[in-house]
Design brief:
Order of helices and strands: HHHHHHHHHHHHHHHHHHHHH
Helix content: over 70%
Radius of gyration: 25 Å
Number of strands: 0
Structural class: mainly alpha
Low-confidence stretches: 1-9, 517-524
Number of helices: 21
Mean pLDDT: 89
Distance between the termini: 37 Å
Shape: globular
């Protein structure tokens, strides 16, 4: 009887490979961080460059539009120029235009500089993911994906904390200067660790140009419509209507081109693979909730509690800091438990954290939000690394670029959809609750009259000498209370909606197949 074959030990991963992974992850972290760090300081930037509240939104929109366009292009452009050259050049451009943004003196300059910064920064996100799933052996990929999760879930959570602190204590320019030290380290790590390769310039002219043009036009107009839609009354605005039509036509053409092209920009057929398809859906909903919750919480704290940027950052820190401790443990957990169970637990905790906020009152502030934020942090920390591993299991090396682009692009689109949806939903629910409350707050209601009488006495005892003026102030105060309560109820509803989205993501994750059941590289 022959002896059982001994398991073959996988070759050790070189230090140089790990430096490449760490350098690329640092780049992805900075690129994602620059979305939220700027949003936290938007009011200060608008004031400094003379931008109005409405127009100032383009400071973020220009970065996001450029980022979402370049993500699906990165796999192809990395083949053309080589991974090392493409990453390092874009990392240097990202740093240069980060500094340039601090010297912008008007809105037009800031929009152009932010767009170029976003185009360079957007490269860093999918290329980090691609390096992890191509350079690391399967046994080490969970560690790499856990590191990548720091950029995808920790960076959005900690962005407002860093942005608020720098803006309040040093000035808004420092949110751009802060990129220099880690950025220089990133460039050095990539320069040292990535192997030089020759450029393949003929691939540039052989590119899927119809797909590139329709994709760029479709994603750019879609992102702009989502960013500006709520402010401009959606399809009631001719501008948003035109953008929506262009986006729908362009993206439809893009899908048709990619399914028929001999060398498509993105291999969309990957979406019919069970794990990748359901993984993309879960990742899209993760983007909805991840960016949606980071958007809605600061708005609540500023509007209802009157917090400044630094105070808001300190509240959100409890969504970020626990992840810094938990995410490094996720690879070990993945070795011991079915990755689908970890994903399900993560989505479940993330959903619960939002459901914990559906009964807020005007006393709900930092202390009351601490526990939900910690639960949210634990949930977010558990989701992305195992979801990435299960979704990309069985993806061939030649499809790694497409898989990375689709996976990261859909999370970003989910974020844009989530923020746009929540903006509109919040407005509509505030109006709904306000109408209901106004009907019950009648001057003939004894409780309302008693409240007004109490306020009249308060104003008369605090410097208002005229009874009519005191009554007017009392009625205005009651109106403000009603409006505030309608606001709070609207925010509670938005957290409920986020919880529902995450429950759907949980169901989608349960439809994933165990990685061990995937038969071969191209398993469906």
């Amino acid at each position: 009887m022959s002896a059982p074959a001994l398991p073959v030990e996988p070759a050790a991963t070189s230090v140089r490979t790990w430096i490449a992974v760490l350098g690329s992850v640092l780049g992805a972290f900075m690129a994602v961080l620059n979305i939220q760090i700027v949003n936290a300081s938007l009011a200060d930037i608008q004031g400094a460059i003379g931008a109005g509240t409405d127009d100032g939104g383009w400071i973020s929109t220009s970065y996001l539009v450029a980022e979402i366009i370049v993500i699906p292009l990165s796999g192809w452009l990395a083949q053309v120029f080589s991974v090392r050259r493409y990453l390092i050049v874009n990392a240097l451009l990202f740093l240069a235009f980060s500094v340039a943004c601090a010297f912008a003196r008007n809105l037009e300059q800031m929009i152009v500089l932010r767009a170029i910064q976003g185009f360079a920064g957007g490269v860093l996100i999918p290329m980090s993911f691609t390096i992890i799933i191509t350079l690391l052996p399967k046994a080490k990929q969970p560690v790499g994906l856990a590191l990548f999760a720091l950029s995808a879930t920790f960076a959005p959570a900690i962005g407002p904390t860093i942005g608020g602190y720098l803006t309040e204590n040093w000035g808004w320019e420092y949110i751009f200067y802060v990129n220099l030290v880690p950025g220089t380290l990133m460039v050095g790590m990539l320069w040292f660790s990535l192997e030089p390769e020759p450029m393949k310039l003929p691939l540039f002219w052989q590119g899927d140009w119809p797909g590139i043009v329709t994709m760029a036009l479709g994603l750019g107009t879609l992102q702009t419509a989502l960013e500006e839609g709520n402010k401009d009354d959606w399809l009631g605005s001719p501008f948003i209507l035109r953008l929506s039509v262009i986006a729908a036509v362009s993206l439809t053409l893009f899908v048709a081109i990619e399914l028929t092209a001999r060398k498509p920009l993105l291999n969309l057929r990957l979406l019919v693979r069970r794990n990748f398809g359901f993984g993309i859906l879960s990742n899209f909903l993760l983007g909805v909730a991840l960016y949606g919750s980071v958007y809605i919480m600061p708005v609540y704290l500023a509007r209802i509690q009157g917090y400044n940027a630094e105070q808001i950052g300190m509240v959100l820190a409890w969504t970020g800091l626990p992840q810094l401790l938990l995410i490094p443990l996720v690879p070990r957990i993945m070795h011991r438990f079915d990755a689908r169970l970890i994903i399900g637990l993560g989505f479940g905790l993330f959903a619960v954290s939002n459901f914990m906020n559906i009964y807020m009152t005007r006393d709900t502030a930092a202390d009351q939000l601490l526990l939900p934020n910690i639960v949210r942090a634990i949930g977010q920390a558990l989701v992305l690394a195992p979801l990435s591993a299960v979704a990309t299991a069985g993806i061939e090396k030649e499809n790694a670029g497409s898989a990375s682009a689709l996976f990261n692009m859909m999370r970003n689109i989910g974020g844009a959809v989530g923020i746009a949806l929540l903006q509109t939903f919040l407005t509509k629910r505030e109006q709904f609750h306000s109408n209901i409350l106004v009907q019950s707050v009648s001057i003939d209601n004894p409780a309302v009259q008693a409240r007004i009488d109490g306020l009249i006495r308060y104003f008369l005892s605090h410097g208002v000498s005229d009874l009519a003026t005191a009554r007017h102030e009392a009625v205005v105060a009651v109106g403000k209370l009603v409006r505030q309560q309608a606001n709070i109820m609207g925010f509670s509803d938005t957290f409920f909606l986020l919880g529902v989205a995450l429950t759907i993501a949980l169901i989608s994750s349960l439809l994933l197949k165990p990685v061990g059941q995937l038969s071969g590289a191209g398993a469906h």
